[in-house]
Amino acid sequence: MTSHISHAETEAEYQQRLQTLGVTIKTLQSELRSTKDTKNQLQNSLQESEERRSALTKKVNNIKEALAREKKSLNQLQSQRNELETNKQKQKSAIDVTIRQAYKLGQQSQLQLLLNQESPQRIDRLMRYHDYIVAAHQDQIAEYTHTLAELVTVTERINKSTNALVQQRKTLEFQQQALANSKIQRLAAIKKISQSLRQKGQRLSTLNADQQRLQQLLEEAINTLSNLQLPSNAEPFKTLRGKLPMPTKGKVLLSYGKPQFEGKLKRNGILIGSRMGADVVSVHYGRVIFSDYLRGHGLLLILDHGDGYMSLYGHNETLLKEVGEWASAGEQIATVGNSGGQTQVGLYFEIRHKGKPQNPQPWLKS
User: Fold this and answer.
1) Closest CA to 272 of 255, 295, 258
2) End-to-end CA gap in the chain
3) In 3D, which of 337, 327, 340 has the Cα closest to residue 288?
4) CB of 140 within 8 A of CB of 149?
5) How far apart are CA 303 and CA 291, in angstroms?
6) How far is CA 115 from the centre of its chain?
7) What percent of the chain has pLDDT over 70?
8) Where would you tag: which of 16, 28, 87, 265 has the fewest CB atoms within 10 A of its CB?
9) What DSSP state is assigned to residue 337?
């Protein structure tokens, strides 16, 4: 599908609106981070450790992919070298046979053939055979030389590939150690935050603030961005109730609207339990309007699906789409995690219409 926006608005104008929204969000985030009280400093420390963990996870995954590609290339080169070695032995054997034939033939020079007073037909046949043997010998020598040259080239490439693998493994070990350290720092930050929020009232206040922060972000998006128009062949979001794919594989652990803190707070989305690093996919074609860290929701990605509909994917381990990029239904956009200070791994998922939360479960395929 190709990207589409409002007919009255160009791509450049829409990008400008996205940039304006980005500046507004950064200002809000900056104001939040600049607050000097202890609770905010602990949250800042958590955010830094989780963002560092996400970046390191991406690096580790990229190195693993590069290692897999290098191993595949090395295996192909080694197969090629084995094939060349086999060809070399066959060519060497063929050259040995030709040399013996040429030696036998060389004992009868062309002058000797004439002096032997053989029949003209036999002399002509022997002389042509002599020429064939000489030509075949030259071709075999040329082919053998080419094989030897190829072997040298392939051997050099194998050595280079092997050295690259060794270096990549060292880099991977270093990044994995850095990742392990970042996880320790994250757990320490979570422990400190938990200790600072021992009272119910403090936890309720924090969760309320998280919900209000997300609501403010969505209101800014609605006010800043014009209505998104999807391609003519894309189904409108409102017609897809009960047809949307699950955003990740797993079981719903926490349902929409579940009351918390004696009914003083309700959940605006669902939590889907999954494994760390599992794929998170877009439930419908849309454009990324937010892809960043949001306090309380961790690494969060928001897609605009047009007609006022948005889908939200929170607590991710890594984000794979940038603001302004498009995502097709079923396309991977993130990986499952527990960012935002969560102790349980899972995807937090919301559907919004004109900023108001909708129960996601009736929208998803059963």
Assistant:
1) 255
2) 27
3) 327
4) no
5) 9
6) 80
7) 73
8) 16
9) -
- Per-residue pLDDT, averaged over 169-177, amounts to 80
Place of tokens 């590609």: 69
Taking the complete model, does pTM exceed 0.70, yes or no? no
Output 263 or 123, whichever has higher pLDDT: 263
Q: Say yes or no to pLDDT of 193 above 50.
A: yes
Please identify which residue in the block is written with the tokens 């960043």. 292
Sign of the CA dihedral with 322 first, then 323, 328, and 334 last:
positive
Nearest Cα to 51, choosing from 292, 267, 253? 292
Tokens standing for residue 345: 């791994």
Mean pLDDT, range 138-162, rounded to an integer: 77
pLDDT digits (tens, 9 = 90+) for 70-103: 888 878 878 887 887 887 788 777 767 766 766 6
Q: How far apart are CA 226 and CA 217, in angstroms?
A: 15
The residue written with tokens 């190709």 in the block is 2
- Taken as a whole, the chain contains a residue count of 366
Query: For residues 326 and 337, is the Cβ–Cβ distance under 8 A?
Result: no
Q: Residue 231: which residues within 8 A CB-CB, separation 6 or more? A: 1, 2, 4, 285
Among 76-90, 99-113, 196-210, 337-351, the minimum mean pLDDT is found in: 99-113
